[in-house]
Design a protein that fits this description.
The complex is a heterodimer of chains A (about 110) and B (about 120).
Chain A lengths: L3 E4 L2 E5 L4 E7 L7 E6 L6 E6 L5 E4 L2 E6 L4 E6 L8 E7 L9 E2 L3 E6 L1
Parallel strand pairs in A: 2-11
Antiparallel strand pairs in A: 1-3, 3-8, 4-5, 4-9, 6-7, 7-8, 9-10, 9-11
Chain B lengths: L3 E4 L2 E4 L5 E7 L6 E7 L5 E8 L5 E2 L8 E7 L2 E6 L8 E8 L7 E2 L3 E5 L1
Parallel strand pairs in B: 2-11
Antiparallel strand pairs in B: 1-3, 3-8, 4-5, 4-9, 5-6, 7-8, 9-10, 9-11
Classes of the chains: A mainly beta (about 110), B mainly beta (about 120).
Chain lengths: ~110, ~120
């Protein structure tokens, strides 16, 4: 049973465009939602994270939008660049119970020049 | 800050041999370390969680006698793949966190190829 559902599986965006990746969850006990970026052959790197008491968080070109009532959160990459081409994973965890991460299935983003 | 290293970055071994992978937190003390396995174009699959000084907790379906995990210090955890077989070939990634951190910091991964 997939605790966190992620879409789309793959995404192609023109340079300068906006990339949007969506995730949904069922467990309302989740209280921490990070996004990771992974390049081929490398480990995931933390991109940005949010807690459910905030509806939006922005860091540079990356923004998380969080909708608690809909149990959805999304990553927006503004002004997408070819260097952003990577696989993106959302995750969710319950921080006071060992903090096991439940990962989405990943989105392969390709930004074309 | 929050750098996690893994060694080796890749390893090729013969079937039946054992392979040890090290995971180190370089600039923080990791009370908890996690080991993941990742197949090509797939998500990360949690194998086990280890707390410093305690036995690892394995996920369902992961053989603890095959994947030996030791978390002997606050900066080092090791994963030993015993009697490796070709089906154990995969990308193994560790992550680490402290008791005060919400997030996990990942190592660069270790590519294992068993011939």
């Amino acid at each position: 049973q997939q605790q966190v559902k992620q879409s789309p599986q793959s995404l192609i965006v023109q340079k300068g465009g906006i990339s949007i990746i969506n995730c949904a969850y069922e467990n309302t006990a989740f209280d921490y939602f990070p996004w990771y970026q992974q390049f081929p052959g490398k480990g995931p790197a933390l991109l940005i994270a949010i807690r459910p008491d905030v509806s939006e968080k922005k860091e540079g070109r990356f923004t998380i939008s969080f909708n608690k009532s809909a149990k959805q959160f999304s990553l927006h990459i503004m002004d997408s660049q070819p260097g952003d081409s990577a696989t993106y994973f959302c995750a969710a965890s319950i921080t006071n119970t060992g903090n096991q991460f439940y990962f989405g299935t990943g989105t392969s983003l390709t930004v074309i020049p | 800050g929050a750098v996690v290293s893994q060694h080796p970055s890749w390893v090729i071994c013969k079937s039946g041999t054992s392979v040890k992978i090290e995971c180190r937190s370089l600039d923080f003390q990791a009370t908890t370390m996690f080991w993941y396995r990742q197949f090509p174009k797939q998500s990360l699959m949690l194998m086990a969680t280890s707390n410093e000084g305690s036995k690892a907790t394995y996920e369902q379906g992961v053989e603890k006698d095959k994947f030996l995990i030791n978390h002997a210090s606050l900066t080092l955890s090791t994963l030993t793949v015993t009697s490796a077989h070709p089906e154990d070939s995969s990308f193994y990634i560790c992550s680490a966190r402290t008791s005060h951190q919400e997030t996990q910091y990942f190592g660069p991964g270790t590519r294992l190829l068993v011939l």
